[in-house]
Amino acid sequence: MRFLYLFLLPLLFSACVGEDILDDYVAPQIRLQNPVASIEEGTSYQFIAEFFNNVGQAEAVTPTWTSADPDILSFGTDGLANALAPGTTTITVAYQDEFGETASTSSNVEVGPSTVIVDEPTKRTGTARTTSTYVLRGDFELTQLPTGELKLAYGDDYTADTRLPGLYIYLTNNPNSNAGALELARVRVFSGAHEYIIPGVGLNDYSHVLYYCKPFSVKVGDGPIE
Question: What is the pTM of this model?
Answer without folding.
Answer: 0.78
